[in-house]
Write a structure and sequence with these properties.
By secondary structure, this protein is of the alpha+beta class. The strands form 2 sheets. It has a 5-stranded antiparallel beta sheet, with no helix packed on it. A hairpin with a 7-residue loop joins strand 1 and strand 2. Helix 9 runs antiparallel to helix 10. It is elongated, with a radius of gyration of 32 Å.
């Protein structure tokens, strides 16, 4: 049976719009059903289903009434219909009745599909796959590091957006610029940090890690390997003083004293990465006591201080790489040797790996080639017997080094460990010593001390077969591993020698 429609609908613009709309809607339904039965979500397919195709559908649906309007307007000019006549809906007319029911049923289906589609589009744009893979090359470093982080099961938006409509809208407006930058290739390489418009940690981190919760002291063992011929192992076991010794004292002492609700710590930094801090202010909110500390070695005058932003210290000032931490080679090669992916029995494997990874690579492919060439060449020239008899171990080491490289260094985005300082600790980056350096003093004579025992005690240290252990409730003095290191290191900052490579 032939369906009769209003005369105004018989135009090419409306016909093309209706045809494309039907095809787009069918594709959306088909692809949505297909993906519903897939275990793995595909980022680009989601972009097509929930954003691109719906946008096309809306645009072509607009073409239908526009085409009808233009045809009526044209016929009025040609006096085919009276100029003063307005469109009429007469349900006694078969054409009008068919058009009415098609419009009503189509509108109901469209509104239902729009509601479902909007919900799915919202969920999709909030997903980890969308954040990490839609702009694949640009976000590859962040996505890779995130997958290997303690927050790998926490969605990106939980930290970068948080709850509430206000920050959701801000994030999407910011996202528009990011789409523009990715499209035109203007994204900075590497992406600059710290992010100035990041939501305050108190509104995101503290949704899970709230200050009122007491965190016990934590026992931590670190395994290091020296860059000598035997890749000698050196272990250190520490008690990290996150809070007080007993929970009743809360945060009266320990690392997390800095976020004690009775204390307010403010600071000013003279550089964008917040590594140089010439001014710190302590306020006891209970007693009103105030101390202002100035760095006597990097003292800033009053005018310079007035131009610097005053920040209230929060989680991100220490935990600045909670999910996107790019480890230095000295650390990730230690990890590879410990988990067995890089054989410890290969002589000088730690040293040669450091030498290779110290250079800057143009692309990941070139890095993979150079790593293979350098490692093979080293053993072929320096240890021909090992090269001849342990080729399988050499190949395993090369594979292990490449695997660790691909988790931490991304040449295309110019991302490596020294681009993003990690403020936790003080070994490869200045971290704690930005303030705790014995040079920040207050007028009242108080000093922000460079005392490692404020934050941790050493319980045991040394080679596995010659470990030295501290008596109960006491700690050891740190002993620097290696031969002929002397005592000069005691007056230095760790970062003056430790750069992420050798030593």
């Amino acid at each position: 049976m032939k369906i009769k429609l209003p005369h105004s609908s018989q135009n090419w613009l409306s016909l093309v719009g209706a045809t494309i709309a039907l095809i787009s809607f069918s594709m959306i339904v088909f692809l949505f059903v297909i993906t519903a039965f897939q275990d793995q979500q595909r980022s680009y397919l989601g972009l097509v289903i929930f954003i691109i195709l719906p946008a096309i559908l809306v645009l072509v649906l607009i073409m239908i009434p526009v085409g009808m309007f233009l045809k009526v307007k044209k016929e009025k000019k040609l006096n085919i219909i009276p100029p003063e006549e307005w469109p009429q809906v007469n349900l006694n007319d078969l054409r009008h009745r068919n058009a009415f029911f098609i419009f009503s049923i189509g509108t109901a289906i469209f509104l239902l599909a729009t509601a479902v589609g909007s919900y799915e589009a919202f969920n999709y744009t909030e997903s980890v796959q969308f954040c990490g893979k839609t702009c694949h090359n640009v976000m590859k470093p962040e996505f890779t590091a995130y997958q290997n982080s303690p927050h790998a099961r926490v969605a990106c938006v939980e930290c970068h957006v948080g709850s509430g409509a206000g920050w959701y809208v801000k994030s999407k407006l910011s996202g528009l610029y990011q789409v523009y930058a990715v499209t035109l290739g203007t994204v900075p390489r590497p992406i600059e940090t710290p992010i100035t418009n990041l939501r305050p940690a108190r509104e995101t981190c503290e949704e899970c890690h709230w200050p009122q919760k007491f965190y016990d002291r934590k026992l931590r063992t670190e395994t290091h390997y020296l860059a000598d011929e035997n890749n000698s192992e050196w272990d250190v076991t520490l008690t990290l003083k996150l809070g007080s010794k007993v929970s009743a004292l809360g945060y009266q002492e320990g690392i997390h004293w800095h976020i004690n609700s009775d204390v307010k710590i403010e600071y000013k930094s003279s550089d964008k990465k917040r590594q140089v801090i010439p001014w710190v202010k302590y306020t006891n909110l209970k007693t009103g006591e105030v101390f202002v500390y100035e760095d006597q070695e990097n003292k800033a005058d009053t005018k310079a201080l007035d131009t610097m932003e005053t920040r209230v210290m929060d989680c991100m000032d220490c935990h600045n790489r909670p999910s996107h931490n790019y480890q230095p080679p000295a650390f990730f090669i230690n990890t590879g040797i410990t988990n067995g992916s890089i054989p410890k029995e290969l002589p000088k494997i730690k040293s040669v790996a450091m030498d290779v990874l110290g250079q800057k690579f143009g692309t990941t492919d070139s890095a993979m080639t150079i790593i293979s060439q350098k490692i093979n060449s080293f053993y072929q020239n320096n240890y021909p017997d090992v090269y001849a008899s342990k080729r399988n171990l050499i190949n395993k080491a090369i594979a292990g080094i490449k695997d660790q490289f691909n988790k931490n260094i991304f040449p295309e985005m110019k991302v490596r460990w020294d681009v993003y300082p990690n403020n936790i600790g003080h070994l490869e980056f200045i971290g704690c010593f930005r303030c705790h350096n014995d040079t920040h003093t207050a007028k009242q004579g108080r000093v922000i001390k460079k005392d490692c025992n404020l934050c941790h005690d050493i319980n045991a240290e040394g080679p596995p077969d010659k470990m030295e252990y501290a008596p109960v409730n006491s700690s050891l003095e740190f002993k620097h591993p290696g031969e002929d290191v002397g005592d000069s290191w005691k007056e230095m900052k760790c970062v003056e020698c430790h750069t992420g490579l050798n030593p």
